[in-house]
Amino acid sequence: MRTTANGKIATLEAHGFTARIASVGAALAGLEFRGRPLVRPFDTDRARPVYSGALLAPWPNRVVDGRYGWQGREHQLALTEPARGHALHGLAANTDFTVTAEDASSLRLAALLPAQEGYPFALELAVEFRLDQDGLRTLVTAANIGRDTAPLGWGSHSYLLAPGRPEDWVLTLPAAAVQETRGERLLPGRLVPVEQFDHGALDFRAPRALGQTFIDHAYTRLQADSSGLFHASVTDAQGVGAQITWDEACRWVQVHTADRPEPELDRTGLALEPMTCPPDAFNSHQHLIALEPGASHQASWLIGPVQPR
């Protein structure tokens, strides 16, 4: 196991898949199926760009102004998105996890999130990665080891890939509602039916090409399959690409077309981010988990290939 700028790097191989996982942020640094990339990889010898592949906890997305109230007390988080004035994507993304178990096809990581200014709650995090015939499965567990009930949300931040030009990629997202955003700070707004938002511009319940559509929005009212799981996929016109599947713990998904000033990052992957709660849930409390002392919470997701039958 090699040590890099992103911590220790584990390589898993099984069933035609190869996964690279960085201990910092429990981040998925790369995933391939028979040599075809399913997620946008990053160079682990350099700073990880834009939260690629990272675990988002104890909150996903933004806490507006970094301020929130919880059980009668006000808290101020560090503004980790200074251009917009928000606390972004939690505390786990820059935490170096410890490897607790590893074999050829699986990896277990663990970390302590200590009580700290802005988030005075202590959590133990555990992440299990496992390759099987369907792809890379991730199971995350948070346990409250403190004395106070802790606010908690989860998220995942992989950028999925399909062959060909991103403007030709086809997105399938069975979500019936999308949250509006306000202004350059992307403040969360109303929840509206997807068919009513900008004349259906963000409605991908039926598969269609992304084109030049800009997306940086949270979706919900997800349609589950017969097993109670949710799916979103990005493919080329021939139906080749990648899919993420997640369980009912995550009732939201953030989608971002990765519009960036850096040429190597600009629209070179599609972020599909399952989340347990919407942006700024520390203030709205919508779908926010109140994790009592001694309690734990789990969520899981799977990234795998999509290929024509």
UniProtKB/TrEMBL annotation:
Coiled coil: none
Classification via Gene3D superfamilies: 2.70.98.10
GO biological processes: carbohydrate metabolic process
UniProt-recorded Gene Ontology molecular function terms: carbohydrate binding; isomerase activity
InterPro entries cross-referenced by the UniProt entry: Aldose_1/G6P_1-epimerase, Gal_mutarotase_sf_dom, GH-type_carb-bd, YihR-like
Spans through the membrane: none
CDD domains linked to this entry: Aldose_epim_Ec_YihR (cd09022)
The protein's name: Galactose mutarotase
